[in-house]
Prior knowledge:
The chain is α+β, with helices and mostly antiparallel strands. A 3-stranded antiparallel β-sheet has the order 1-2-3, with helices on one face. Helix 3 crosses helix 4. It is elongated and about 80 Å long. It starts with a helix and ends with a strand.
Amino acid sequence: MKKWWAFLFVLFCFLFAQPAGAGAYNVFAPNSFDTAGTNTWEYKELERMCREGKSPKYDASYFEHGERLSRYELAGVLIDIMDHGQDLSNADWTVLNKIRRSYRRELEARGWHLAPQEKKKPILEIHGDLRVRHQSGGNSGGSDDDARARVGFTYHVNDHTSIQADHVEESD
């Protein structure tokens, strides 16, 4: 009887630990094809840089055509300025890096990715597996139950420090 309770506990932990990853999607995150508000600081900064001639492909008229631009379209302006920008100051690069972080999803959708050395580790990694075996009958004449669940966590404090914890639960 103890074996079945252990088996059910391990199965319960495994089944209810899996959907936690699905909850990682932020439903309140902006949609890439939503129109970007003309009063947002990102929009104003990109428009300013285009007006000042820092983008070779876009100019101020791109922002004045009467239609509101989507976040995806603004990501195209951002890519052009970051890759081919002219006369960019340190303050401009600081602003561009802030915009790059908030437009990360749109930049990736357009095929622009960070250089490998700029990619950061996730703050918290969760990993694990579940093994359940049940054999009934056979030559031994009895049932054989075996269950094992492993779960581990790695918390990255900074680039040089990580904390790792692992837990193994086994039942025979």
